[in-house]
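Blinded run. Sample ID left blank on purpose so nobody reads anything into the name before looking at the predicted structure. Input follows.
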Amino acid sequence: MVVAALLLVACGRVDFTSIDARGDAPGDAASEASDAPAIPWALVSDRSATSGTLALPSVGSGHLLVVGVHVGVGGSVTALADDAGNTYTSVPAARASNTSMVGSDTLEVWYATDSRSGPTTITVSATDMVVSTIAWEVSGIRAANPVDTAVAISGQPATTTPMGPPITTATAGEFVVSIAIVENGVSGTVAGNEFTNDFRTRGNGWAHLTDPAAPAGVHQAVWNQGTAGSYCANAVAFFAGP
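Blinded prediction complete.
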């Protein structure tokens, strides 16, 4: 799927049956130019796996790789690696856990910038079982210091509409991902929400901000969960640009 810019994530334990579904003043030219992304990003590819080994298409060079990882029983990710030698960095502010659930599943986000071409597999190392791994490959993202901001919420009470944490982007056209780990499984984002849900792997929500020209400001993913349940979630935003 090809779409927009920001990242949220949520946590909880669900049935481990794989569910990989496709599922300034107006008229001020200087101000408007400063708000526009220098290089619009594009979602090149995305992939999902129900383990810590994720197969990729042939990744292009100079791209951003964003990886969301769901780990069981309060575990932590210790490292990510791929077969092209890209370097992955964690986003500590995006770590979330569903402390309302037995097992306290956790969610983390890692990324690699200015990718080397050719990786076909990402491997996750963690202190407990890796429940699922999702990766987004995005072009048009700043290579140096690409993260604008990240937020996470843990141990959220039962609801039928789990929400990613609101995230405030500093510039127009950022790439944002939002992830929710839920207790009872999502069917997708709510009607009219500005996020596209790319996967429902393990019943959870793995989404990105749809519009590559989304204005700077507050953005929030919201999902439908058929039966009320607890959850955790996060969101991460990346700057567009060279």
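Unblinding after everyone has recorded impressions. Helices lie at 29-35.
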